[in-house]
Amino acid sequence: MKQGVALADVALASAGAENQFVATVDGRALQHADWVRKVRGWHAAFARVSGDEVAFYFEDALEFSAALWGAWHAGKTPVLLSDVQPSTLEQLLPTVSATAGLLPNALTALDVFEDQPLPPFDMHSAQLVLFTSGSTGKPERIVKKVRQLDAEVHALQAAFGSSFGCAVAADSLQVLATVSHQHIYGLLFRVLWPLSAGRAIGTRFARYPEEVLQQLSQAENNVLISSPAMLSRLPEHLPWGDARTRLKAVFSSGGPLAAQGSELALSTLGHSPTEVFGSSETGGIAWRRRAEHGDVWQTLPGIEVRLNDSGLLAVRSGHLVDPANWWETADRAEPLSGGASFVLQGRADRIVKIAEKRVSLTAMEQRLQSHEFVKLARAVLIERANLPTRVGMVLELSEAGWQALFAQGRQAMGQAMRDWLADAVERVALPRSWRYVVRMPMNEQSKITQQSLLALFDPLMPAPQWLSRTELEAHVQLQVVPELRVLEGHFPQAKLIPGVAQLHWAVTLARQAFDIPGVYARAEVVKFQQPILPGDTVEVQLKRIIEKDAIQFAFTSSRGAHASGRLLKGA
């Protein structure tokens, strides 16, 4: 089995891949030589930059890949931004020497007319910067040497290179993705691994299951790079039959895929997803397919694992900065089969003290997820100055759960959930604040972050009371109480909800109501008819306009219309 080309050689003539198929662009096959010309154009652009670090944010995976290698060959360090939120740009852009992609003052590739060979680069010194997802706290900056990425790519090829079928040529596979290449998982599976192994890179991006289905029909052999968020919500009513024969493998990473999600993917797509366990810091550690392995994780080639004295998983591999030393994770595990496999037992950093009682947030989540009303549960610690720490719980409800909520109300639902937990959790540690969502809030990498969960408990916005929702429409009620922090300092003599806050509410509610990745960057046809005041009970109507990738919103109350408009993606 071909083990792949070293990442440092992918864009060099020594790779021997001039006629290799790299991607399909507007129905035309792009050959390796065409891609290298793109790399040379980006190399020429980056060679003119005096500093070291260049901020990257591309939606186009093909252009991203060419810019990535162009930067490495120019001796630059790409910094992969996880999003383009104003706060992110404000914090990171002043620290870099240039930008590329969909960023302010972005460089573009230059026209290069001579076939000047690219200068080689050293994988031990070349690097990139990316950021953790923030699923367990604030996103952290991580520096990865290309050597580490190369080791991981070759481990993936050794583990899964034969998964696509011996009769399928490497360059005939279409890589489809529902995750971004701006994060380590998408970067490896959509870009680095395919280019190293001689497969087409994952230029096809799908935001919705309908797009996955449509794109599967465009090639005979496909690999799907997806996430628990997508695989757990595949609509069973779609005509998956023909698509099942076109899929050779399904991968999932970025977070835990529940057993129900794995079973759903198997029944709809015909494949038990290959789950990859790891982190931005450690790289890939292990893998499993639930249909074959159940809860047991198999270590990837070249990975050593052991337990420390506290029962936490420790890893040693070429994916780490120091491959000779052990990296201790926060994951509790039970080793099996002489250390080559293990079962995860939850994270140690999710054991907390509430009123001097030790509580497992993971155990609470698992207990709630066993209730027929709950599809997914996520707990967060709410810490406020001069107030005791308490647990907040966010529940993604099932259809039965929504019916119960609409019929019985929030108070009855909260009591039912507390009663369900009562046998497993000390009374003083029971969650005191509850939020009910149609979809868990997720970032661009389809990860549930602590920041996004805590925002649901932020008094900048009232707790939403969902009245109804479908895949295309949602109806929610907001009680505007005087304690909302958004009222502070704004027209002290006549407190009202600012227009910018109303737009923030609309965006937040839209992301909760519909499973929509990406960022809403602008609004149009916005009208503010009358102010929203403390004491108002506001009803918000949301309508998803798929063909425009937009959300239509309207705020009303017993006093009439307050605001309306459309939210759109893009600059």
Write structural notes for this entry.
With 571 residues, this protein is of the alpha/beta class. Helix content is 26%, strand content 30%. The strands form seven sheets. Strands 10-9-11-12-13-14-15-19-18-17-16 form an eleven-stranded mixed β-sheet, with helices on both faces. Helix 5 (184-197) links the parallel strand 9 (174-177) and strand 10. 42% of the residues are buried.
Keywords:
571 residues, alpha/beta, Rossmann fold, GMP Synthetase, Chain A, domain 3, Thiol Ester Dehydrase, Chain A, 15 helices, 26% helix
Largest sheet: 11 strands, mixed
Low-pLDDT residue intervals, each spanning 5 or more residues: none
General form: globular
Number of strands: 30
CATH architecture of the domain at 1-145: 3-Layer(aba) Sandwich
- Name of the CATH first level of the domain at 1-145: Alpha Beta
Which bin fits the share of residues in helices?
A: 25-40%
Task: Kindly identify the CATH topology of the domain at 1-145.
Answer: Rossmann fold
Q: What is the mean pLDDT? A: 86
Q: What does the radius of gyration come to?
A: 25 Å
Identify the strand order in the major beta sheet. 10-9-11-12-13-14-15-19-18-17-16
